[in-house]
Amino acid sequence: MAQFRKFGNPGPLGLSAFALTTFVLSLHNGGIGQKLGSPPNVVVGLAFFYGGLCQLLAGMWEFAAGNTFGATAFSSYGGFWMSYAAILTPWFGVLDALEAAGSTVTSHALGIFLLGWAIMTFIFFLATLRTNLGMCLLFAFLDITFILLCAGEWNSKPRVSQAGGYFGMFTALIAWYIAASDLIGHHNSFFALPNPSLAPRSSQRAINDPDHKTEEID
């Protein structure tokens, strides 16, 4: 007889990978990393393997668990981190080619790259309006982060990019909180972290009471 094994929740892994990589990069975008003497390229390893590979794997397991939104979001941002790491890695030659074309071309190219992710993030934000407060805030602040970073690169305004770094740090903290709320509960700790639902009350009743039947409207 075939045996079926229930999958664990890949969400905390994807959120943690996103949070840590975003936090480290945002520390440098905000200027704090430089003040501490940390080189910006320290994020490359994280972007390839934690924010990139681990988040991509979390996205694939979300597909297996039947969560299309989680799968699309985690896989997309895993791809974002890998592509960003490729830009910063000399072996790929992306940044060298851009810099050879001039600083203006580099700024505009990176601005377009970030603009695309700002648009994608806004689409994800619209898909979180009836999920929970944490996810809604996460994508709202992430979209603001991408918009500020895009504007800072496009106009060569370091202070705008620095503001994007601070928003990115706050975004990372939200992602960590959501991951912690999934990991920490009364089954394994002395407390649970709240994450209020934004779903309509009828949907919440259906989840809490599987035998509850809603009237169909033709």
From TrEMBL:
Molecular function via GO: acetate transmembrane transporter activity
Pfam hit, one: Gpr1_Fun34_YaaH
Domain of life: Eukaryota
GO CC terms: plasma membrane
Signal peptide annotation: none
Cellular compartments annotated: Membrane
Positions of transmembrane segments: 12-30, 42-61, 81-98, 105-126, 132-151, 163-180
Membrane topology label: Multi-pass membrane protein
Biased composition annotated in UniProt, kind: Basic and acidic residues: 208-218
Family annotation (InterPro entries): AceTr, Gpr1/Fun34/SatP-like
Keywords: Membrane, Transmembrane, Transmembrane helix
Main location: membrane
Start and end residues of each stretch annotated as Disordered: 199-218
Family the entry assigns: Belongs to the acetate uptake transporter (AceTr) (TC 2.A.96) family.
Protein name as annotated: GPR/FUN34 family protein
